[in-house]
Specification:
The chain is about 5% helix and about 40% strand. By secondary structure, the protein is mainly beta.
């Protein structure tokens, strides 16, 4: 049996703890990392990711509302308006948060990270070294930048994005057009995604 690791924060609502406990007991989350999607209106919401897809539960009754991407490993989604953007083992998907309907999809076997977002724009990093800005409403590519080796999902600070990965460099990108502004060597392959401090 492979291990299951759960990270809970001190202020996690009881309903979410009950939700995660139920999901584990039903076997949805065996051998996977789990998480609850965040949005701007709720500290925690009712979506759970696993090795067998994306689940939506009623946080009060714990009844399962829908299940999508059943045969894929999924990563923590981001919530943008009425849709979830979630990466799976075969690409990026926009899922209607209430119904679970697939609104659009972008097929790829190189996706290995969750997306990050700023407003209506999602940023997708891939194992093939690409970083894309994507219109979350349509799934269309706004710009794409290529790097030598895989890169992590970017951190955002103002108009800048910061990413890095296997080439051992930290890259600064203009988030509006994808232009590379500068890079700096960190001396080795990056083992964690970059984080932008609140004070810049």
């Amino acid at each position: 049996m492979c291990p299951l690791i759960i990270v809970m924060e001190m202020n996690m609502p009881l309903a979410v703890v009950r939700l995660l406990t139920l999901a584990i007991s039903l076997g949805f989350l065996a051998c996977s990392a789990i998480g609850a999607a965040r949005d701007t209106d709720r500290s925690y919401s009712q979506w759970v990711v696993s090795d067998s897809g994306l689940f939506a539960f009623d946080p009060e009754t714990l009844a399962m509302r829908w299940h999508q991407l059943q045969d894929q490993q999924t990563f923590e989604p981001v919530v943008i308006d009425d849709r979830l953007l979630v990466t799976g083992s075969r690409g990026l998907y926009a899922v209607a948060s209430e119904s679970g309907d697939i609104l659009w999809k972008r097929s790829s076997k190189q996706v290995g990270f969750p997306v990050v977002s700023a407003g209506e724009i999602a940023y997708l990093a891939s194992r093939d070294g690409s970083l894309e800005a994507i219109d979350s409403r349509t799934g269309s590519t706004l710009w794409q930048q290529r790097f030598p080796g895989w890169v992590y999902p970017p951190a955002q600070s103002g108009e800048l994005l910061f990413t890095g990965g296997s080439d051992g460099r930290l890259w600064a990108i203009d988030r509006n057009n994808g232009d590379l502004l500068w890079s700096s060597s960190v001396g080795q392959e990056m083992v964690y995604s970059p984080v932008a401090l609140a004070d810049g």
